[in-house]
Hints:
- The protein has helices at 20-23, 25-34, 49-59, 150-159, 176-187; strands at 13-14, 43-47, 66-70, 76-79, 82-88, 96-102, 105-109, 128-132, 165-168, 192-193.
- By secondary structure, it is an alpha/beta fold.
- A hairpin with a 2-residue loop joins strand 4 (76-79) and strand 5.
- It is globular and about 50 Å long.
- The mean pLDDT is 94.
- The protein binds zinc ion (2 copies).
- One zinc ion (ZN) binds at residues 19, 21-22, 112, 169.
Amino acid sequence: MSLPFDSYLIDAVVISHQHPDHCSDLFAAYHAWTFSPTPRDPVPVYAPQVVWDRMEEFVEGEMPCFEFHPVWTGDRAEIGDLEVSFVEMDHSVPTVGSRWEANNRVMFYTADTGPDGTWKQLAAEADVMLSEASYQGESADKPYPNHLTAGEAGQIAREVGASALTLTHIPPYLDPAVSVAEAEATFDRPVRLAVPRVSFDV
Ligand SMILES: [Zn+2]
Ligand SMILES: [Zn+2]
């Protein structure tokens, strides 16, 4: 049987925050790597400390398949050829956004965030901003302040001077084509959508 994806190709994992939609895959990785007949070398995991605390509580045991590195604003990590810098985001729990640099190309990932805070400085002049877009419509109608509308994502990408914008974190009950159209209206150029198994050059 050939698997569609070989988890042994993963060199490192970056987790932005403790909400289950962002960290629950770590539990599947823990099982796959810990109980495999061919255990692998520990995989570096970069995340806010509370993510590791919550995992230890849940697993109630050692997790030798992971090598944990707590990260917060100002921290940097070398992952292969990539340099990754972290910054606190505008979310309800400790959350890091990340700036990924290699070969003079830059991607900034917002994780989950509202529009406030100083994080936009780290997103400056990104070649690609990978942004959450949890809502559609007017900012004033947002049910929760610590997420972005698609229009806000486009507006911020424009403000920070990003060359391209890719949207993610669109809930399954929204039409992503509407989110893309709303982000294009404020970004004022084409916007891409992150979907499983599609890759982009930065
Ligand atoms: Zn969240
Ligand atoms: Zn989320």
